[in-house]
Specification:
Length: 54
């Protein structure tokens, strides 16, 4: 099921989710690791693009 269909049909679930995220305040350890990995992959992709321009 697409995410937008779920959030449109069940706004209560969406609101509960965002309330819990806001309540937690800090990102979890797995979320921090994932964000760090994404940043590294974006840097590698940018470096590959720069190498192709040469």
């Amino acid at each position: 099921m697409p995410r937008n269909a779920l959030t449109q049909r069940h706004p209560d679930l969406k609101n509960d989710f965002y309330a819990k995220v806001k309540e937690r305040g800090q990102p979890t350890d797995p979320e921090r690791r994932l964000r760090k990995k994404i940043t590294k992959l974006k840097e590698l992709r940018a470096a590959d693009t720069d190498d192709e321009d040469l």
